[in-house]
């Protein structure tokens, strides 16, 4: 991992995922499929955001670990379903054959479904908070971000825009919803659990919105100029599917400038925070500079 990525936090999350993941029982195949996708690598970016947002307020990182791991379950679910033949039809993810390639479409669909349910079981069963109302708020954030008003809605417009000339507003809608909402909810969930005030939550929400856009723009750029071996997924997949992307709509150079501007905006939003936002700022730089 590059120096700007908080390796200690990533390791903590790997440990949390291993601790919380349910023991394999009958029917073993579904546990194996879930485990296969969840433990096949990945940056753990959304989970890292939950922990690092909580740390801004001096919170013990271990405290928010169930919610951080739940964010990673939801993300992994979205990747399994995104790769399915009916959606993007990809056969490589995190450098390994996709879940449906190994376990079949039926089991992959169910592995995604099960990870989604496990996410909310983990938060409602393991996440501690002084006030149970805070847990309900966190569940609401993640459910909203991943549902029809978030990731699913963005994915629908993404699919419907394949091969179609779309305007800037539609492009922004796709990326804000498909990618940005879970990133935003992860930051907000960590901050809410750590007792952020309304004003601080607003600053972090601005940070996360820009971060989510920067993340997706670089994702689009890497799909054009990245290296399959480093990325762990097949480069050129967006072009093959005639996807609406920032480089397609704006050109590669403008897309790079946009990613830089979004990164700067994200970092600027942190300036007025009362706590230490330096790791969140590093994460914004990481998003802009990443090659995987
Ligand atoms: C999961 C609620 C839910 C709905 C399914 C399939 C789908 C609807 C949504 C797709 C969302 C999606 C896959 C968006 C792309 C987000 C993205 C840029 C993924 C890559 O994330 P990284 O780079 O991957 O963080 P790693 O492997 O590092 O975790």
Could you characterize the architecture of this molecule?
By secondary structure, this protein is mostly helical. It has a single domain (7-289), classed as Farnesyl Diphosphate Synthase, CATH 1.10.600. It has helices at residues 7-20, 28-38, 45-55, 65-83, 99-103, 105-126, 132-146, 151-160, 168-193, 198-225, 228-231, 237-240, 246-250, 252-269, 278-289; strands at 92-93, 96-97. It has a two-stranded antiparallel sheet. Strand 1 (92-93) and strand 2 form a beta hairpin. Helix 4 (65-83) packs antiparallel against helix 6, helix 8 packs antiparallel against helix 9 (168-193) and helix 9 (168-193) crosses helix 10 (198-225). The mean pLDDT is 96. Geranylgeranyl diphosphate (GRG) is lined by residues 42-43, 45, 75, 77-79, 81-82, 87, 94, 146, 151-152, 155, 178-179, 216, 219.
Write the layout of secondary structure elements.
Layout: H1 7-20, H2 28-38, H3 45-55, H4 65-83, E1 92-93, E2 96-97, H5 99-103, H6 105-126, H7 132-146, H8 151-160, H9 168-193, H10 198-225, H11 228-231, H12 237-240, H13 246-250, H14 252-269, H15 278-289
Antiparallel strand pairs: 1-2
Helix pairs in contact: 1-4, 2-6, 3-4, 3-9, 4-6, 4-9, 7-9, 8-9, 9-10, 10-14, 10-15, 14-15
């Amino acid at each position: 991992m590059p120096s700007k990525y908080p390796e200690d936090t990533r390791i903590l999350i790997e440990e949390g995922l291993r601790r919380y993941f349910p023991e394999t029982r009958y029917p073993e195949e579904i546990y194996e499929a879930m485990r296969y996708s969840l433990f096949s690598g990945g940056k753990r970016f959304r989970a890292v955001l939950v922990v690092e947002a909580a740390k801004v307020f001096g919170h013990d990182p271990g405290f928010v670990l169930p919610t951080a791991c739940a964010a990673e379950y939801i993300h992994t679910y979205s990747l399994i379903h995104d790769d399915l033949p009916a959606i993007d039809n990809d056969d490589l993810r995190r450098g390994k054959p996709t879940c449906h390639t190994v376990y079949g479409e039926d089991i992959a669909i169910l592995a995604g479904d099960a990870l989604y349910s496990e996410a909310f079981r983990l938060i409602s069963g393991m996440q501690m908070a002084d006030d149970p109302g805070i847990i309900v708020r966190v569940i609401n954030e993640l459910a909203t971000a991943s549902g029809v008003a978030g990731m699913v809605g963005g994915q629908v417009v993404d699919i419907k825009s394949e091969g179609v000339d779309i305007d800037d507003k539609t492009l922004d809608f796709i990326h804000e919803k498909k990618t940005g909402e879970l990133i935003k909810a992860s930051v907000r969930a960590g901050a809410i659990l750590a007792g952020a005030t309304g004003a601080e939550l607003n600053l972090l929400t601005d940070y996360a919105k820009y971060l989510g856009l920067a993340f997706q723009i670089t994702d689009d750029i890497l799909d054009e100029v990245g290296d399959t071996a480093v990325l762990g997924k097949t480069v050129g997949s967006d072009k093959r599917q005639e996807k609406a992307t920032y480089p397609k709509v704006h050109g590669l150079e403008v897309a790079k400038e946009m990613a830089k501007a979004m990164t700067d905006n994200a970092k600027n939003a942190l300036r007025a925070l009362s706590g230490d936002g330096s790791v969140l700022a590093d994460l914004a730089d990481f998003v802009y500079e990443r090659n995987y």
